[in-house]
Design brief:
The protein is of the alpha+beta class. It has helices at about 5-10, 105-110, 115-120, 125-130, 165-175, 210-230, 250-255, 265-290, 300-305, 450-455, 485-490, and strands spanning about 25-30, 40-45, 50, 60-65, 70-75, 80-85, 95, 135-160, 180-190, 200-210, 240-245, 245-250, 290-295, 295, 310-320, 320-330, 335-345, 350-355, 360-365, 370-385, 390-415, 420-450, 465-470. The chain has one domain. It is about 20% helix and about 45% strand. A hairpin with a 4-residue loop joins strand 17 and strand 18 (about 350-355).
Length: about 500
């Protein structure tokens, strides 16, 4: 949505392939000894099509037609892979047995490699270890978000527009929701490689759980500001925005834009679809393109390895693949601690998980502040039919807070109108503190190589918008592969 009014400009100045319906299996994965659920286990069929269990160990697997030889496999780091004929599945609980560590010849032969050697080997022969070329990635994406205003205050010092008095601001800010939570989900096919410039998105279906009435409040406030501005702001004007020594210029038509009023309803709808496709492709592209830089793993931990102390702590298995477990902690002023899991045969990184131990960013100066105090990441790769690894699961969780506690002066100026250059002026003290939480979850069900001609011939089509719901609907994704929702999603209700 284009920001048109002075209010919204001020407000944001400080914040900077188709999966066919079929039959489904819903179940949970548990440890056979402890009876505890196992998060993020991989579940897949003979074909390679699969899904990842959520943090509660729950999953939903969609399948079309199966023959008598089809099997289901459940695997997780440190457990024996469970494989059984699909026809024999009777229960909704899959129990995995912990796998006994056996130092086979592969591990023994690599035993002489110290951690530094392993880290070096991880970055070698990347094209032979990972599927870096053009592929079609069948995926499900979930965004979880919340926003809370811890402070939202405006004190008017001077205004030449009578409507923008203190009473108006108090009543307007009172209407703004102080807290909002939303969930967004989509299914689609992301075509391309790991370059953000080589991405094309096919949207299949999308869902949003959000209180549209809260969104409408902002839209109604925007319309009210537009009306006031049209009555008071002259054509050909521009605005000088200043906060202390910080200033900038905004053209009046950037704020008071009426061009979309000339569009038909059909044209407005199509522009919404186009904006939605562009927005979602950008989010997905940013995630996948952050993994590789040409022929190297582009991960902060590996790029700044000298800032961390790496310790090989254990061996485990992923199915029959022996795996090194390496812990890392800051060796000085680094941000994260976590674990990496390395295929002992290929010496390829197959999983990384880490969490910050100090704020990622912490800035406060002259009344402007920003602090990111939580970042948790899980990245998991799965071996494909080509014997190369491809992205299976990406989980990015972040929490941050921004604030603006400064004077703000907005002045309308016009060089064409005779008389004084200054037309209108609004002076205020603005105090806004905003807490945001955001989580991205991406699971790739199937990765298929794509030739250059097919990629170039594919044309993106802006055809859908998300379906809005005010409560969780368990039937919405019936027949589609997804990450099973956790308890928070299931309990979502617009209040």
């Amino acid at each position: 949505m284009k920001i048109k009014s002075i209010f919204f400009f001020m407000f944001f100045i400080f914040v900077g392939t188709c999966i066919l319906p079929g039959q489904e299996l819903t179940a949970i994965v548990k440890d056979s000894l402890t009876q505890k659920s196992i998060p993020f286990a991989s579940i897949y069929l003979n074909s390679g099509t699969g899904v990842v269990a959520n943090e509660e160990g729950r999953f939903r697997l969609i399948y079309d037609t199966l023959n008598e030889n089809d099997s289901i496999f459940v695997s997780c780091m440190g457990y024996k892979t469970l494989g059984l004929p699909f026809s024999s599945v009777k229960d909704s609980i899959f129990y995995l047995n912990p796998k006994t560590i056996e130092l086979n010849s592969i591990i023994l032969s690599n035993k002489e490699l110290d951690v530094k050697d392993i880290l070096k080997e991880i970055q070698k022969d990347i094209p032979e270890k990972y599927e870096l070329g053009l592929t079609e990635k069948k995926l499900f994406f979930r965004e979880t978000g919340s926003q809370e205003f811890k402070s939202l205050e405006v004190e008017i010092k001077k205004t030449s527009i009578d409507e923008f008095n203190q009473v108006f601001w108090d009543s307007t800010l009172y209407k703004i929701p102080k807290k909002n939570t939303w969930y967004f989900e989509l299914i689609g096919n992301l075509n391309g490689d790991y370059n953000d410039k080589n991405q094309k998105l096919e949207l299949i279906r999308a869902l949003e759980l959000e209180d549209k009435e809260k969104t409408a409040i902002f839209e109604n406030i925007e319309k009210l500001f537009d009306t006031i501005l049209k009555q008071n702001v002259k054509s050909n004007s521009f605005f000088k925005v200043r906060s202390g020594i910080i200033g900038g210029k905004v053209e009046a038509d950037e704020i008071n834009d009426t061009s979309k009023d000339t569009l038909t309803s059909k044209q407005k709808l199509q522009k919404e679809k186009e904006a939605f496709l562009k927005w979602r492709k950008r989010v997905l592209s940013n995630l996948v393109s952050s993994l590789f830089d040409e022929e190297k793993l582009d991960l902060a931990i590996l790029k700044k390895a000298s800032k961390y102390k790496f310790t090989q702590t254990d061996f485990t298995y992923l199915g029959d693949t022996p795996v090194y477990i390496i812990n890392f902690n800051p060796n000085g002023n680094a941000d994260y601690k976590g674990k990496i899991y390395v295929d002992a045969e290929k010496l390829a990184l197959i999983r990384i998980e880490y969490k910050n131990i100090q704020p990622i960013r912490d800035f406060s100066m002259f009344g402007v502040s920003f602090k990111e105090d939580l970042r948790e990441v899980i990245i998991q790769f799965k071996k494909s039919a080509s014997n190369k690894y491809s992205l299976e699961y990406f989980d990015f969780n972040s929490s941050f807070e921004g604030g603006f506690d400064r004077p703000l002066v907005i002045t309308e100026k016009n060089k064409i109108v005779k008389g004084r250059n200054k037309q209108n002026q609004l002076k205020m003290d603005l105090n806004v503190v905003n807490r945001n939480n955001q989580r991205y979850q991406l699971v790739v069900f199937e990765t298929t190589p794509l030739n250059t001609n097919d990629f170039e011939d594919f044309q993106e089509k802006a055809e859908i918008l998300p379906v809005n719901r005010v409560t969780y609907d368990p039937d919405f994704w019936e027949g589609y592969m997804i990450i099973e929702p956790n308890a928070a999603v299931k309990e979502f209700r617009v209040k």
